[in-house]
From TrEMBL:
GO cellular component: plasma membrane
Domain annotation ABC transmembrane type-1: ranges: 60-243, 325-521
Subcellular location: Cell inner membrane; Cell membrane
Origin species: Actinophytocola algeriensis
Lineage: Bacteria, Bacillati, Actinomycetota, Actinomycetes, Pseudonocardiales
Keywords in alphabetical order: Cell inner membrane, Cell membrane, Membrane, Transmembrane, Transmembrane helix, Transport
Membrane topology: Multi-pass membrane protein
Main location: membrane
This protein's name: Thiamine transport system permease protein
TM stretches of this protein: 15-39, 59-86, 98-119, 125-150, 171-204, 224-248, 273-295, 335-354, 366-385, 397-418, 458-477, 502-521
PANTHER family tied to this protein: INNER MEMBRANE ABC TRANSPORTER PERMEASE PROTEIN YDCV
Protein family membership: Belongs to the binding-protein-dependent transport system permease family.
GO biological process, one term: transmembrane transport
Stored InterPro entries: MetI-like (IPR000515), MetI-like_sf (IPR035906)
Length: 531
């Protein structure tokens, strides 16, 4: 029996049983399909030829370049917002938190269409700006969490010694924030490098990343060896990004422990108002594409919304827009229930391993995060190859879409639940144990009540993410089970003004749902995860 720092005896067998469920799900619905498609591609040969092609390395170069550019823009835009959230006490900060978080949880196809409405010609900068808008919230919230705890006395001392505000920031504040910035940058780069819907809509046939090229080779060209080679490259990049992110996250957590209590916020002084102005400019900039899309949906009055009762111009859809919305709601509900269950179990395992100071806890954490970065197309195609071997042949089952969505949502649930479970005062757990409560009762009576609101937050965000999931769903959904994001992508790829009007109207509906959920979460005031 192992003993954690709170003095509670933790059963290795019980911990193993809890871990078996999320790890088993990960093995069956992620590792097995991915390994199967890679083995199939490698067996067919041609991988070395693919990797030797100059076109492939140009593709890699563009993927890395646009991800690096979007990451840089996210950091530059996110730092002033982080200062606003961490160091100021101004009216409307709750609204700021909602606005910056909305793009992060909006469906990628909606963000892509919003920027296409704003920048009809698309192009590299449209992709970079769209991906950056996704991730400003990651930078702002991650950096603000550490910035809140920085001791102002070091900055005041530098100013007293004659350092200017820029010099104080670059010489004192920025080095102290480095762990949080590095943690956020690793995750943002990962999200941008594996972006699918944004690149598909804004890049078209001209600009492709590894993710969209894997889709093209798998779905249209049936080039499994080429898709396998590209998936191997992408998987290597994902593991590297996740490993860097884990190291930087650990440094950020160490810095937070060393900093202690949070500094009280106050009104900005002197030159700080320029930073506040820059932060509000970023917030307004995030609103512009979304507002443009919503305005575009009403350009012809309510025609687009009325058309959602039909199947589009010349039968572009096999079901009506409202049927697609019902499919989305049903699949997202099922996916959320699965993901919350698995994510909570995984969080319990990770916290227990950390309390028992198990060395491989970061390896397990990284394993749970892998589905965030591996091509959804690779996973989806792997399902079609492997799942016929399971009882009932899930390949033709309506359950396949929520299972794939749960795979994407579970890491988000883990990132929301982990910091809350870690922050529970171990003295409360120790007191419960002293009074005779066993490990299971301690979890039930202490941990679960304190993590309850975060569990609700995880469920809410999991729902909106599943509602807008596009990558895996676009590959797995049958025409009669298409979700709203899949229907939007099909509408914008077909001719006819009616199709465009329907797509913009459907996007607006998704925006309304997303804003409502984010506003409720902000009202509850539960931290939205760690990155």
């Amino acid at each position: 029996m192992a003993r954690d720092r709170a003095g509670l005896r933790t059963s290795p067998r019980g911990l193993a049983l809890i871990a078996l469920v999320p790890l088993g799900f990960l093995a069956v619905f992620f590792v097995w399909p991915v390994v199967a498609i890679l083995r199939l591609g490698l067996r067919e040969g041609g991988v070395l030829d693919t990797l030797a092609s100059p076109d492939v390395w140009q593709l890699v170069g563009f993927t890395v370049a646009q991800a690096a550019g979007a990451t840089a823009v996210s950091i530059v835009a996110g730092l002033p917002v982080a200062f606003l959230l961490a160091r100021t006490r101004l009216p409307g900060l709750g609204l700021v938190r909602v606005i910056i978080l909305v793009p992060f949880v909006l469906p990628s196809v909606v963000v892509g269409l919003a920027f296409r409405a704003l920048l009809p010609d698309g192009g590299v900068w449209a992709i970079i700006l769209a991906n950056a808008s996704f991730n400003v919230a990651v930078v702002a919230r991650t950096v603000a969490g550490l910035w809140t705890h920085l001791d102002r006395r070091a900055e005041d001392a530098a100013r007293a010694l004659g350092a200017s505000r820029p010099r104080t920031f670059t010489g004192v504040t920025l080095p102290a924030l480095a762990p949080a910035i590095g943690s956020a940058a690793a995750v943002v780069f990962l999200f941008c490098a594996t972006s699918f819907g944004v690149v598909l809509i804004l890049g078209g046939a001209r600009l492709k990343t590894l993710e969209t090229e894997i889709y093209l080779r798998t779905v249209e060209l049936l080039d499994l060896s080429g898709a396998a080679a590209l998936s191997l490259l992408q998987l290597g990049a994902v593991v590297a990004a996740l490993s860097i992110g884990a190291v930087m996250r650990r440094r950020r957590e160490t810095a937070l422990r060393l900093r202690g209590q949070a500094e009280s916020a106050r009104r900005p002084a002197g030159g700080e108002w320029w930073v506040v102005a820059a932060a509000f400019a970023v917030v307004v900039a995030l609103l512009v594409p979304v507002a443009t899309l919503v305005a575009r949906s009403f350009q012809s009055g309510l025609d687009g919304y009325r058309a959602l009762t039909g199947i589009g111009y010349e039968g572009s859809l096999d079901i009506s827009g409202f049927d697609a919305a019902r499919n989305s709601l049903a699949a997202a509900t099922d996916a959320t229930l699965i993901a919350v269950t698995l994510g909570t179990m995984a969080s319990v395992v990770l916290v227990s391993l950390a309390r028992n100071r198990v060395r491989y806890v970061e390896v397990v954490d990284t394993a749970f995060m892998l589905p965030l970065g591996v091509s959804a197309v690779t996973v989806g195609f792997g399902y079609l190859i492997t799942l016929d071997l399971l009882p009932g042949d899930l390949r033709t089952s309506a359950a396949l879409v929520p299972l794939a969505q749960a795979l994407v949502v579970t890491p988000l649930v883990i990132r929301i639940m982990l910091p809350v479970l870690r922050s529970i005062d171990e003295r409360l757990r120790q007191a419960a144990a002293t009074l005779g409560a066993g490990p299971w009762r301690v979890w039930r009576e202490v941990d679960v009540p304190m993590a309850g609101r975060s569990l609700g937050t995880a469920a809410a965000f999991g729902f909106v993410v599943a509602l807008g999931e596009f990558g895996a769903t676009s590959f797995l959904a049958r025409p009669d089970t298409a979700t709203l994001p899949v229907a939007i992508a099909r509408l914008v790829s077909r001719p006819g003004e009616l199709n465009n009007e329907m797509a913009y109207a459907a996007c607006t509906l998704l925006i309304v749902v997303t804003v409502a959920v984010v506003a409720v979460v902000e009202r509850v005031r539960v931290p939205v995860g760690e990155f």
